[in-house]
Write a structure and sequence with these properties.
The protein has a four-stranded mixed beta sheet, with helices on one face. By secondary structure, the chain is an alpha+beta fold. About 50% of the residues lie in helices and about 10% in strands. It is built from seven helices and four strands, in the order ααααβααβββα. Bound molecules: FE2/S2 (inorganic) cluster (FES).
Length: about 160
């Protein structure tokens, strides 16, 4: 999985704390990852385990105890850019089409919870707008047709 910079930064921040292995620190990190990703992906747990120097099973135990923390539940993640430049290139139209096609709920999930959709306000790739990331991979100058074709493969 190609990690988003945001997740790496969160993990690195918590790994740099004085006592990175402390439970309070780990819980705060997991919560922040979840706020960004909608859940706590396996790949994020693996990276965090490595950086914090703990076993991944530590996270599993904590997540079992705190039911508001949710382990990865989706298979694919789609991030659509809704920054101004991408909006000028009809990114909102793509977003609407994806939401309709996948019947995305208010939390960003498809009904089977296999696909998670979120938006980002500028991916800093404005020259190639509209932009999208699918499972961490950037799709530049993407069209509605390309996105819908990709979704068909995922279904
Ligand atoms: S507005 Fe979409 S990449 Fe900048």
């Amino acid at each position: 999985m190609n990690f988003e910079q945001e997740i790496r930064e969160i993990i690195e921040y918590y790994a740099a704390q004085r006592n990175p292995k402390e439970q309070e620190n780990i819980i705060a990190m997991l919560r922040e990852i979840q706020e960004t990703e909608g859940c706590i992906p396996l790949a994020a747990q693996e990276l965090a385990a490595e950086k914090l120097g703990v076993k991944r099973s530590v996270f599993t135990c904590i997540m079992k105890r705190l039911p508001d923390l949710k382990e990865e539940i989706y298979s694919h993640q789609l991030v659509l850019c809704t920054g101004e430049r991408c909006q000028n290139k009809k990114s909102m139209e793509i977003l609407k089409a994806v939401k309709e096609e996948l019947k995305i709920d208010k939390d960003g999930f498809s009904p089977d919870r296999k696909i998670y959709l979120k938006t980002q306000n500028c991916m800093k790739q404005c020259r190639t707008s509209p932009n999208m990331k699918a499972d961490g991979e950037l799709y530049a100058a993407v069209t509605k047709e390309q996105v819908l074709a990709l979704l068909k493969k995922w279904k």
